[in-house]
Here is the input.
Amino acid sequence: MAKDILRKPTGFMDIYNFKPGDDKGNTHYCPGCGHGILHKLIAEALEDFGVADRTIMISPVGCSVFVYYYFATGNVQVAHGRAPAVATGIKRTNPDSIVISYQGDGDLAAIGGNNILQAANRGENITVFFVNNAIYGMTGGQMAPTTLIGQKTMTSPYGRSVQNEGYPIKMAELLSTLETTTYIERTSVHNPKNIAKTRKAVRKAIKCQIDGKGFSLVETLAMCPSGWKMTPVNSTKWIEEKMMAYFPLGVTKDVIEEREAYFPKKLELSNLEIKEKLGLTKERLFVKRDMSDVHDKYRNPHIKIAGFGGQGVLLLGRVLAEAGMRHGWNVSWIPSYGPEMRGGTANCQVHIDERPIGAPVVDRPSILVALNKPSLDKFEPTVKPGGIIFYNTSMIDRKPARDDVEIVGIPFSDIADELGSLRFANMVVVGAIIEKTNLLGYDVTIDALNEAIKNKKFVPANIKAIDRGIAEMKKL
Amino acid sequence: MAKELIKGNEAIVKGALLAGSRCYFGYPITPASEIAHGAATFYPLLGRTFLQAESEIAAIQMCYGAGGTGARALTASSGPGISLKCEGISYAAGSQVPIVIADIMRGGPGLGNIAPAQSDYNQVVKGGGHGNYKLIVLAPNCAQEMCDLTMLAFDLADKYRTPVFVLTDGFIGQMMEPVEFPEPVELDHRKKKDWAVMGDAETKGNLINSIYLNEEELEEHNQMLQDKYAEIEKAEVRFEDYLLDDAEIAVTGFGIVSRVLKSAVDVCREKGIKAGLLRPITLFPFPNDRFAELGDSMKHILVAELNNGQMLVDVKMAVGCRKARVHFYNRMGGVVPSVDEMVEKITEIAKG
Ligand SMILES: Cc1ncc(C[n+]2csc(CCOP(=O)(O)OP(=O)(O)O)c2C)c(N)n1
Ligand code: SF4
Ligand SMILES: [Mg+2]
Here is the structure.
């Protein structure tokens, strides 16, 4: 019967060369199976639209795992349920291709439920053919999410019950509720009239993609005589009487006319443009320098900067590291990370070194910046003998006790407050450090600041803070 | 080009784009999220695809789709997300689809914590998914290598038609260091991929596939994969030697641990202890021969890891029953050992 209205289109292989064994002329489907009919309708549409060459068919896991035996297109076989994600990857990188995801009910509605939902919701410009045969055909007739109430399968031997498995899922209706989907219809292939309707739906769905209108899906009720343990004839009856009663045929969503066509723009960039967009052509001030004019005790410092979150500790370290890099030295910067991060304190660790840097961690700082009391309490004992401690007298009411290190106490927070915001305390510290150690040039420090601060309108105020830090240091 | 101070994670993104990566698909997770942030910023700027997938399961499959068309695809995650990607990775290995995956390791099992760890070594190096596959695994230990090895990963992925991992820890991902970015490489890698399915007349006979129903065919396919891995083992071993020539104790570790060990070796040398460092840069292929040599020439080999001794097994296999005694030091909760801690351990071993 189906023969009269089905021909072998050129989108379909003549000889199934990918099929192992000697029989390369017959499909692997059981007699009376619905899959083969749908295959031909799809192949025919691809031929008629002249898009077979640029089509990529996705073979799922299920009885249609061997879709690739049959379609004279590009073919990709994928994991169970993942076809919509794979289709997304293909279509996004190859917008000119026609991407077709072919899936069974276990594949699409069970294991791949989230994948189809999300692809549909993103409005991927792909076409999905969803074969609803109310069963897992391939694995020997287990229950599917679309199995009918009372239907006996290998894993619902007493019949599917609402209490145990809930109602069969209506994917066409469900996906139609998503704002982004464009065209969804449920059809059947159990008789010539419905095959003709399916043919129309298949074409409409593929055309929808060709026209750049977004996500389209055709759910097709299909016979599985083997899984249902019925004759082919009884199978067609079962669809008519049982399946169609629960899964009504027809269009559940069609906004093709309203949808605007969308074809992503292509952008071809020259190497120079690529570098510009990646920020690699940015001019930076490099002033090569060795540390010979830096006092011994400040050379190759290991710096730890600690304070409350919000005191700009990370940025402070970043500016020092940026500046060090501009002198041609090796630098590393790491934020407090993992266990160190708890308790509202933040710290960062910076190396500036003429030699390659091994461990980026600073266990024994030669420069400690303590912006609050807990930081001083915690890290004072770790400072290297001969090192230096900068501490924030605005927030710390005791002098560091160590007598084997240099101590610099400055009311960083009060000064920042005077300058208009507590947030500038960190840059006052930068000023104090560059003045005290002579390690980093003023110009490279300003250049470093320029790069490190995202919002450029704050740069002048921060420069002021650095200047103020220098002045305060000079006063001491 | 001038150097830029940049986080390791961000260097991966720029490296990937310079290598001509066309797309990034991923799902956010600490401590890998800067990769997603950077990709979300830069891929669209360059007219390339960034998409936040619904899960890691989907992200790797999107890479599978893109990679199968010859596009250079990147994804990144950390432990829990890598577990989910294992399904897709196995398919990609079987179907020989090139994909680059960055794993910025955190502590496990389960949710563990977000602190730096190396607990995914087995999962990544031994192949966390099903089937007889291996992956090339590159282990950067600085921001420069995050860029360079990501670029190399794309080349190796294409050359051998295999997924390639960039495996490092949260520390290397979060750390900022100067990076000198190379010139962008030629974009049209796809011309060379005659196996890919590109949605055009020339490639329409092609098939991306991991299913072989026939037993002999599957065995042949598996044998072909093993031959490929053998070829990779011959050609792609990379490691760094440091002060090993006259050493008596070799220390070894990858990622952040190798940085700590290098400093510890320096301190030990100052103390007169003859220590040196072997840092594997490729974890597969593993530097077996070099470890075997050290098995003969060293008195001791110390393996340090942020896990329960996962690379240790590979070192022991390589050293076998040679002269050197293999020692082990580890942390497992997110604490990176200090230089002092490692010096103490090396000193203790040196004293015998
Ligand atoms: C991850 C995974 N789980 C389970 C399977 C086994 N399996 C193969 S096909 C299938 C069911 C397919 O049913 P459906 O999608 O309805 O396709 P049909 O065969 O009915 O056309 C299952 C469970 C698998 N291949 N992969
Ligand atoms: S088991 Fe069912 S779905 Fe599978 S080929 Fe046979 S009839 Fe078709
Ligand atoms: Mg089914």
About this structure: Chain A has two domains: 2-258, 279-475. Residues 279-475 of chain A form a domain with the Pyruvate-ferredoxin Oxidoreductase; domain 3 fold (CATH 3.40.920.10).
